[in-house]
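Format notes (please read before filing issues)

Several people have asked whether sequences and structure tokens are stored in separate files. They are not. Every record keeps both together, in the order shown below: the sequence lines, then the token lines. Line labels are part of the format and must not be stripped during preprocessing.
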Amino acid sequence: MVLFIAMLVAFATFFLVIFLLMAFKNKRSLDIFYRMRRHNVDPVVRKPNAPQDLATRFRLFIQRLAKPLVERNFAQSIEYKLRSAGIQLLGGEYIVLNILAMIVVGILVYFWTLNRVFAQGAVALVPAVFWFGVLTLSKRRLGEFTEQLGTSLITISNALRAGYSFQQTIEVISKEMEPPIGEEFTEMYQQIAMGMPLEEVLEDANRRIGSSDFELAVTAVLIQREVGGNLAQILDSISGTIMERIRMRREIVSVTSQGRMSAMVLLGLPVAAGLAMFTLAHDSFMQLFTEPIGKMAVAAAVVMEIIGYFVIMKIVDIDV
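Then the structure lines:
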């Protein structure tokens, strides 16, 4: 039960941080955000001497603590993943938030349970929860990007037939399409406007987005620029392939929904059973956390739960 409370505290801290991040998130492109922040310029325009709310003060406090970490290689690698998730944070700020959350969760769990082991376990859980949230947001944003990609390629091919250059079609997508694909094409257009070669812009976007479908389109464009050909016709063919893959993915998700639900039940049922035993047979249940053999049984159960969850998810995760 105490371990369950520690996990709840960790999850509550994670969602609190997400709420604070969303509180000062603006609608400007990610590229402008990161570029201005790296030069210590606040992308949010405010009136001089305007009062600062709690979220603003907290954000400025995080920025000051993260300043020594911003240019570190490991922080920049984390930042790349944050950008793919659409989180307006620098890598150093993400690390500082992790450290602060670990401290807060450790203190709360220790004073709640008066058990150093549980507090250490909760502290170790915080970075995993944070990173799981980043991966979840990144995967969701990638799915939204892929859903828009087929339509965007059709728009590009039609614009090419109308006489637009490829660079101009990128501007069209950046203005006409909704996020996240509009944001990504806006960044590509800004890089081109700054004089960056188109090949490097496409490769950078492909590396940042991480979509196999977008990689297919980028490869086709790069090959066409080398050997020539009808780019509009090529993009029409690729868009048809991408839309067919999206349709197949939707069917697979529908067919494997039962397996995914089984994985969720596998994780939730032991927690529900533990709460019931804690209420109905408190003394017997607490022996699992006080007796050596009980601790071994809990540890073995947790390990098997995790293994079972990942095995089920591996079975239902069918790559198209």
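For reference, the curators noted about this record: The two ends are 41 Å apart (CA to CA). The CA atoms of residues 79 and 91 lie 4 Å apart.
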